Amino acid sequence: MLTTTDVVGGYGSVQILNGVSLKVVRGQIVALLGGNGTGKSTMLKVLSGLIKPWRGSIVFDGERIDGMRPDRIVRRGLVQVTQGKEAYPAMTVEENLLLGAHVCTDRAARARGLARAYEYFPILKERRRQLSGTLSGGQLQMLCIGRGLMSEPKMMLLDEPSAALAPQLVLDIFRTIGRICRDGMTLLMVEQNVRMALLLAEYGYVIKDGVIHLEGPAEKMINDDAVRLSYLGGTVAGRDEKMAL
Question: pTM of this prediction?
Answer without folding.
Answer: 0.91
